[in-house]
TrEMBL record:
Function (record text): Probable component of the wybutosine biosynthesis pathway. Wybutosine is a hyper modified guanosine with a tricyclic base found at the 3'-position adjacent to the anticodon of eukaryotic phenylalanine tRNA. Catalyzes the condensation of N-methylguanine with 2 carbon atoms from pyruvate to form the tricyclic 4-demethylwyosine, an intermediate in wybutosine biosynthesis.
Catalysed reactions listed for this entry: N(1)-methylguanosine(37) in tRNA(Phe) + pyruvate + S-adenosyl-L-methionine = 4-demethylwyosine(37) in tRNA(Phe) + 5'-deoxyadenosine + L-methionine + CO2 + H2O
The keyword rRNA-binding appears for this protein: no
Lineage of origin: Eukaryota, Discoba, Euglenozoa, Euglenida, Spirocuta
Swiss-Prot/TrEMBL GO biological process terms: wybutosine biosynthetic process
Gene3D superfamilies according to UniProt: 3.40.50.360, Aldolase class I (3.20.20.70)
EC number in record: 4.1.3.44
Listed GO MF terms: 4 iron, 4 sulfur cluster binding; FMN binding; metal ion binding; tRNA-4-demethylwyosine synthase activity
Pathway given in the UniProt record: tRNA modification; wybutosine-tRNA(Phe) biosynthesis
Cross-referenced InterPro entries: Aldolase_TIM, Flavdoxin-like, Flavodoxin/NO_synth, Flavoprotein-like_sf, rSAM, rSAM_sf, tRNA_wybutosine-synth, tRNA_wybutosine-synthase
Protein known as: tRNA 4-demethylwyosine synthase (AdoMet-dependent)
Keyword Oxidoreductase set for record: no
Family as reported in the entry's similarity comment: Belongs to the TYW1 family.
Length: 640
């Protein structure tokens, strides 16, 4: 292959981009022998079968392609399923019937591995040397997978729309209207309808019947090269190639999706099924609770989570809950595999805060009840666990966007349930409006605009400005404030000077630094176990962060606590170091007294001494000596 490149490079330089592209595809065919190793099924182009081409990153399009293949095969039609990442574009002109299932991701582009095909098709459709009837013998249908949250950027299902436009330019025969499935609505209804309709058409085609093309353009399409500006918003021209096409433009599309039915439920059937399978107890139409493994562990006397070590919370009385399962980011380290909606604002039916608090506690109690009879569970702890005393508003999603969040928090405090709220630093106005919580977190996932975009994958265009504004808002809050850093090796651990500047800007009471936990293969992220730092690497990072921050701000921060099991270290402002002792723990009764009163208070008014075993550098490494460390037995290898 290398020798071929050396021979053909001078020719490509002389011939320009078209010749270069031709040579790339020629080399591919020479080296691969035309073998489509990822194709399922085998047939010749003269068969009246169907080729199913899909573009996927998270695996949804691949699953749908498999479902379509099974449906048509059951009807006696031979399918061929190919990932566009492994498809040779030069084979495309020979296709007779193609079904496309294509996903659109950030920036309005398809999966990176499929860019070659889409680039080839666009160049082919715009090449004046290619006859405008080049695809007149091609029957095709397109299913687009997208998310309407990107509509205001003009990116909603853009891959599917551009694909249709390119095929129409070369007279491809659209035999079904382009179907655009919206992740916000759960995808299933549109996808199932498209598969059913297409299956019927494929059967007709397999029986030798001629297919009639559909001229109606997709309702969200844009004809960028139209010379006339259509003004009639009530309908569409019959032919997408008409120069006076009256298609909805992307600005109108963004407004249309922004005005979706406010009574729609966030939890659509597909999302309910997915989250239920993951162990969530779903509350109403947009909330959920889940039982943490540390809750189960501490019920059995096997140790508490880092919040027990750092702040004195009893893990077996902690309820993990969120009033909003939607988020504004798609962080690469998120363990929920991005099955939840993303949004810029609240736009769903809203459940009453009293209902959410009551139902969440009831659901949590039901999950605690399943621990009854589990070997090792301590009866006295189980009895206490039925009365939750802490709520971690950090399960998934962005709880701060729930419109009644202040009422919700106050209802928890009235029940003497403390609150730790985590926000992803995209809603500064909501932070400003937030009433006191026991501890308020802002996720600081990177220290520069470029790395934050790469790690958090935010949906706001002005994400960096919002991020900085949230840090400014946090500094103005009176309760305990925390920077939460999740360290990802090779992604966000190298920007020490910039992190120090953010600390100087926000002046948080605490900085929690945790190594990312590898949660297994995730098609929505390319993280591996190699991206998870060791505890000592996190410690070194914290030491450098303290040194840098103190250099800029004076002797302000120190290493206070660690929880080695969670690969987590707590940096604290030295105002919590009183009389030679750290006071990172919380006097929860005192907090509730202050929160429900009328007087102003600050973080030092409800601090409590940190026990020696929890302090950084102690032999226990953050493991409570009152607990019994449980070491799992290694599985024995089978003898041969």
């Amino acid at each position: 292959m290398v020798e071929w490149c050396k021979l053909l490079l001078p020719l490509s330089l002389l011939g320009g981009i078209p010749l270069c592209n031709f040579l790339v595809h020629l080399l591919r065919r020479i080296t691969s022998g035309g073998d489509q190793s990822k194709a399922i099924g085998s047939r010749t182009s003269t068969d009246r079968g169907i080729t199913i081409l899909y573009a996927t990153q998270k695996g949804t399009a691949a699953q749908l392609a498999g479902r379509l293949a099974k449906r048509v095969e059951a009807k006696g039609v031979t399918p061929q399923v190919v990932d566009l990442a492994h498809y040779d574009p030069e084979d495309f002109p020979a296709e007779k019937f193609v079904a496309f299932i294509v996903a659109t991701y950030e920036g309005g582009e398809g999966p990176v591995a499929t860019h070659d095909f889409f680039r080839w098709l666009e160049e082919h459709s715009n090449d004046f040397r290619v006859p405008k009837n080049a695809f007149e013998s091609l029957n095709y249908s397109i299913l687009g997978l997208g998310n309407s949250v990107y509509a205001d950027k003009g990116h909603y299902n853009l891959v599917a729309l551009n694909l249709d436009r390119s095929l129409q330019k070369l007279s491809g025969q659209r035999i079904l209207e382009v179907s655009l499935a919206d992740e916000q609505d759960g995808l299933l209804e549109v996808c199932d309808a498209w598969i059913e309709d297409l299956t019927q058409i494929v059967v007709q085609y397999g029986n030798g019947k001629a297919l009639q093309p559909v001229r109606k353009a997709p309702s969200a399409a844009v004809v960028e090269d139209s010379e006339e500006d259509g003004s009639d918003d009530d309908g569409f021209e019959d032919d997408i190639q008409s120069q006076g096409s009256n298609l909805m433009d992307m600005e109108d599309l963004g407004q249309a999706y922004g005005k979706k039915n406010k009574n729609a439920e966030l939890l659509n059937p597909r999302l309910r099924q997915s989250l239920t399978k993951q162990g969530y107890q779903l509350i109403g139409s947009h909330s959920g609770v889940k039982l943490c493994r540390w809750t189960k562990a501490m019920l059995r006397g096997r140790g508490g989570c880092y919040k027990h070590t750092f702040y004195g919370i009893k893990s077996y009385q902690c309820m993990e809950m969120t009033p909003s399962l939607a988020c504004a980011n798609k962080c690469v380290f998120c363990w929920r595999h991005h099955s939840n909606p993303v949004t810029k604002e609240w736009r769903w039916k809203m459940d009453d805060p009293e209902f959410l608090v009551t139902e969440s506690i009831d659901a949590h109690v039901r999950m605690i009840n399943t621990m009854k009879g589990v070997p090792g569970v301590k009866p006295e702890r189980l009895a206490e666990a039925y009365t939750p005393r802490h709520c971690a508003l950090s399960l998934v999603g962005e709880p701060i966007i729930y419109p009644e969040i202040n009422s919700f928090v106050r209802l928890l405090h009235e029940r003497h349930i403390s609150t730790f709220m985590v926000t992803n630093a995209q809603f500064p106005d909501r932070i400003d409006q937030l009433d006191p919580v026991t501890q308020l977190y802002v996720s600081i996932d990177a220290a520069t605009k470029e790395s934050l975009k790469a790690v958090d994958r935010p949906i706001f265009d002005d994400f960096w400005e919002r991020f900085l504004a949230c840090i400014d808002s946090l500094r103005r809050k009176g309760q305990r404030t925390v920077f939460r850093l999740t360290l990802v090796k090779d992604r966000n651990m190298e920007e020490m000077a910039e992190y120090c500047e953010l600390v100087k800007r926000g002046q948080p009471d605490f900085i929690e630094v945790k190594g990312v936990t590898y949660c297994g293969e995730n098609t929505a992220s390319d993280l591996t176990i190699k991206n998870s730092p060791y505890h000592q690497e996190v410690v070194r990072f914290c030491e450098e962060l303290c040194d840098g921050a103190n250099l800029a701000m004076g002797d302000t921060y120190g290493l206070a606590c660690e929880h080695e099991h969670s690969v987590c270290v707590l940096i604290a402002n030295k105002k919590f170091f009183v009389d030679g002792q750290w006071h990172t723990w919380i006097d929860y009764d005192r907090f509730h007294e202050l929160a429900l009163g009328n007087k102003a208070f600050d973080a030092t008014d409800y601090m409590e001494p940190t026990p020696g075993w929890a302090v950084f550098g102690a032999d226990e490494k953050g493991f409570d000596p009152a607990e019994v460390r449980h070491v799992r037995k290694q599985k024995q290898k089978a003898s041969t």
